[in-house]
Each structure stands twice: as structure tokens, then as C-alpha cells.
């Protein structure tokens, strides 16, 4: 395989990693927003008394929900979101490492291509 073809192939792989990294970062941002939202709900629940009613929106309807059940649901959601954040952060780190490897590969191929050109010119112009 020629160096130019290899360069194009590795460049394509690098661009795909950039897209994957971008998607993972967007997912991380969405999870951050969900985490903040659920933390606010948890803070609101902390201020409730036993006499306060809690309602859950199901479609266009508000349905009364047990306060303890609602608090448990929010805690479970928070645990899930934190787990997802850790997973996505691992993906981001993995994509960044793979991207660094591909970038170095591109630099190496580019250097080899630059060294190859003067040799080709010397062969054609004695």
C-alpha cells in the first residue's frame, strides 16, 4: 500500500474518531443537564413535609404519587445518571487516546511522504 493511500485511510479513521468524540461529549453534556435537573428535584423533595402532595406528570395528566416512592425514583435516577456519566467519560478518554495515536500515525506518514518526494525528484532529475 502506498503511503498516500495509507495517509488517506488513517485520515479517515482520525475523522471518524473526531465524530465519535464529539457525540460522546454531547452525550456527556446531556447527562450533566439531567443530573442538575434531578439534583434540583432532590433538593425540592428535601424541603417537603409529610403533608405535602407530590404529583407526577404522565403525558398531559398529573397523577398523585407517594412521596417516598418519588424520592426513591429520583435517587435511582441520580445513581443511573452518575453511572452513565462515568461510562461516557471512559468513552471520551478512550476516543482521545485513540485520536492521539492516529494523529501520531498521520505525522509519521506525512514525514515519510516528505522524505520520499526528494528521493523521487532525484531519480527523475539526474
UniProtKB/TrEMBL annotation:
Family: Belongs to the prefoldin subunit beta family.
CC per GO annotation: cytoplasm; prefoldin complex
Keyword terms, alphabetized: Chaperone, Coiled coil
Sample GO molecular function, one term: protein-folding chaperone binding
Pfam families registered for this protein in UniProt: Prefoldin_2 (PF01920)
UniProt record, GO biological process: chaperone-mediated protein complex assembly; protein folding
Family matches, as InterPro entries: PFD_beta-like, Prefoldin
Xref: PANTHER family: PREFOLDIN SUBUNIT 6 (PTHR21431)
Coiled coil: 14-51, 78-105
Matching Gene3D superfamilies: 1.10.287.370
Stated name of the protein: Predicted protein
Recorded superkingdom: Eukaryota
Amino acid at each position: 500500500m502506498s503511503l498516500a493511500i495509507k495517509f488517506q485511510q488513517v485520515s479517515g479513521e482520525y475523522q471518524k474518531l473526531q465524530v465519535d468524540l464529539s457525540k460522546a461529549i454531547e452525550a456527556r453534556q446531556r447527562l450533566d443537564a439531567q443530573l442538575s435537573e434531578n439534583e434540583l428535584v432532590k433538593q425540592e423533595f428535601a424541603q417537603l413535609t409529610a403533608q405535602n402532595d407530590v404529583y407526577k406528570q404522565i403525558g398531559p395528566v398529573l397523577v398523585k404519587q407517594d412521596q417516598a416512592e418519588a424520592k426513591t425514583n429520583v435517587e435511582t435516577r441520580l445513581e443511573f445518571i452518575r453511572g452513565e456519566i462515568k461510562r461516557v467519560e471512559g468513552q471520551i478518554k478512550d476516543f482521545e487516546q485513540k485520536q492521539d495515536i492516529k494523529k501520531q500515525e498521520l505525522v509519521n506518514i506525512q514525514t515519510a511522504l516528505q522524505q520520499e518526494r526528494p528521493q523521487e525528484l532525484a531519480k527523475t532529475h539526474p
